[in-house]
Automatic annotation (TrEMBL):
The keyword Nucleus does not apply. This is PepSY domain-containing protein. Residues 60-120 form the PepSY domain. It comes from Oxalicibacterium faecigallinarum. Keywords: Membrane, Transmembrane, Transmembrane helix. Pfam families: PepSY (PF03413), PepSY_TM (PF03929). The chain crosses the membrane at residues 15-36, 153-170, 191-216, 337-358.
Length: 377
């Protein structure tokens, strides 16, 4: 590679890194507790604990679950009902002023077997809420998500340009060399390069999936205009329902259609994932990968009959796969620990890169000051 090309790649690496580094440091720092969000929830006492009962304990009907949840907030209406991927003992019912309102939301955790209210998780405060909001959108909604997506793309550019520069740089050194007997700056430069290569694949995966995740709102809106619009087209122009039919009947219809799948979540009529005339019952697979993929089953909210169901398109599937991969949710505790270690190493890479730029700038300014002084004398 010619000297001109090397200088060009060095310029790309320098400025793509500098622009995104502060935000990437923020994402790594806020992402670290999110890897262990369940464990931290237990530690803080915010995680809902379901009492132990025999595995064959019967569950109450979904209609009763909703009655219990709404009784806690009679002025609210149902938006969603969901369960944890590996725990069907608790229903988390989300309520709001209207099916489309994003303010004033409340959540009620209802024991699916006894109907006991196990708690009311806070949706808009607490340590994990702050970490999650900073990590996802900087408290700035869609604009914040897209901005972080752009920073993620700059990170990918910085990684690729770093790979291009690493080969010529390491021609003079053995792999893994850290020149401990040299200046502090050279030691940090070697460490920066070494850890950068060690975390290369992980940073690319996390950076790419992070960028995809920032498009979540846009992907969902496109799915609504594309697939959902086709699924509810026969109901276009019909007046809104005055009274909803049995939710349990809708759930039973969805389970009968997909008996090999598990319940994921339920969207009530008028919400993002349904229509004004349907319950959106989203089923999930039972394998580690397929459990992250949903299949929507639209059920007429008045008759309880399935009206449409189809596999999610590729762009929605890509989004659903990228979300747990981004936080290391696929492989249990070992993968969480590995993700945390790589996250910490990435913080060192980003921090050392910022340090090297500051030191080099100070050195250049000092040299310039000496030249000016020598010229003046």
């Amino acid at each position: 590679m010619t000297g001109t090309n090397l200088r060009r790649w060095a310029w790309i690496h320098k400025w793509s890194s500098l622009v995104c580094t502060v935000f990437m440091l923020l994402l790594c720092l806020t992402g670290l507790p999110l890897i262990f969000h369940h464990e931290i929830g237990h530690l803080l006492g915010t995680e809902i604990e379901a009492p132990e009962m025999p595995a064959d304990t019967l569950h109450i009907s979904m209609d009763r679950v909703m009655e219990i949840a709404i009784a806690q907030h009679p002025d609210k209406v149902g938006m969603f009902a969901s369960q944890e991927e590996d725990d069907d003992r608790v229903w988390y019912v989300t309520l709001s002023d209207t099916p489309t309102s994003e303010t004033g939301m409340k959540q009620v955790a209802v024991d699916a077997r006894t109907g006991d209210v196990l708690g009311q998780p806070q949706l808009d405060n607490g340590f994990m809420y702050i970490m999650f909001s900073l990590h996802v959108n900087l408290f700035a909604g869609l604009a914040g998500m897209l901005f972080l997506g752009f920073m993620g793309m700059l990170l990918i550019v910085a990684i690729i340009s770093g790979i291009v520069l690493y080969g010529p740089f390491m021609k003079k050194l053995e792999f893994g060399t850290v020149r401990a007997d040299k200046s502090t700056r050279l030691k940090w430069l070697d460490l920066h390069n070494l850890l950068g290569i060690v975390t290369l694949a992980w940073l690319l995966v996390v950076g790419a999936t992070g960028v995809i995740n920032t498009w979540a709102d846009l992907v969902i809106k496109y799915w609504q205009m594309d697939q959902m619009a086709e699924m509810v087209a026969p109901y276009k122009g019909q007046p809104p329902l005055e009274k909803l039919g049995s939710l349990q009947k809708a759930v039973d219809a969805a389970i009968a259609l997909e008996p090999e799948m598990k319940m994921g979540f339920i969207a009530f009529p008028g919400t993002t994932f349904s229509s004004p005339h349907h319950y959106g019952v989203f089923m999930r697979g039972t394998e580690p990968l397929t459990s992250r993929l949903f299949k929507p089953v639209l059920v007429d909210a008045s008759t309880g009959e399935v009206t449409d169901s189809r596999t999610l398109p590729w762009y929605a599937t890509a989004l659903l796969i990228s979300q747990p991969l981004h936080f290391g949710d696929y492989g249990g505790r070992p993968m969480q620990i590995m993700w945390a270690i790589l996250d910490i190493l990435s913080i060192i890479v980003l921090g050392s890169g910022l340090y090297l730029w500051i030191v080099r700038r100070k050195t250049s300014e000092a040299r310039l000051a000496k030249l000016i002084q020598a010229h003046q004398t």
